Amino acid sequence: MDFKQAVKEVVADPRYKKNIEYGISRSGHPEGKVKFHITDLETNLESLRHHLLREEDYWKLKFLIHVHDTFKAEAAEGVSSIDPLSHESLARAFASEFTNDTDLLNIIQYHDENYALWKQFRSTGSYDDQRFISILNMIKDWDLFLAFTIVDGYTKGKDLEKLPWFINEVRQHKRTRVDESWIP
């Protein structure tokens, strides 16, 4: 699949153009609008590019950047990531119009799970093991998922402690090239 072309098609889509204008400055997203978040993530991607082994991974990450939060404007608030009206589910449905890559679609669906698990761990000292195991089994390309976790999570307003924590949790169970040295 040509993800470079898919990115071009995504950014030309009228739904995308409308939805990236959504957002106000808030906790975790002081940049406000989705389009400003995308700009930050593209900068992060460039800082990680030298770690990527394949050009295809660069374009998959770019695709993820442009799709993952694009449907926050249309999402129901306070629903789980698997709810059909969550921003994750809406983004996954949109992405499925451009790719049938199940792993990439799963990354879109579960891209915020690292944060949910981190919040549990930080407040209680533990997290939902079954939720974590489910993600471990759902995702195939852990290099891509963790690279995206860094790209999406290394921004102003985000708790940066979650990045090395989550990477190390995954590395205890899955083989991945990504380690703490990837964090800018």
Chain-wise SSE layout:
Layout: H1 3-12, H2 14-19, H3 34-48, H4 55-67, H5 87-95, H6 102-110, H7 113-124, H8 129-138, H9 142-153, H10 162-171
Helix pairs in contact: 1-4, 3-4, 3-9, 4-9, 5-6, 7-10, 9-10
Q: Write the element-wise H/E pattern from the N-terminal end onward.
A: HHHHHHHHHH
Per CATH, the class reads Mainly Alpha
Number of DSSP E strands? 0
Class from secondary-structure proportions: mainly alpha
What fraction strand? under 5%
Radius of gyration: 15 Å
| Shape estimate | globular
Multimerization state: single chain
CATH topology type? Hypothetical protein af1432
What keywords describe this structure?
single chain, 184 residues, mainly alpha, Hypothetical protein af1432, globular
Give structural notes:
This protein is mostly helical. The protein has a single domain (3-182), classed as Hypothetical protein af1432 (Orthogonal Bundle). The protein is built from 10 helices and no strands. It has helices spanning 3-12, 14-19, 34-48, 55-67, 87-95, 102-110, 113-124, 129-138, 142-153, 162-171. Helix 1 runs parallel beside helix 4 (55-67) and helix 3 crosses helix 9. It is globular, with a radius of gyration of 15 Å. The two termini are 29 Å apart.
Summarize the structure.
The chain is an all-alpha fold and 184 residues long. It has ten helices and no strands. It has a single domain (3-182), classed as Hypothetical protein af1432 (Orthogonal Bundle).
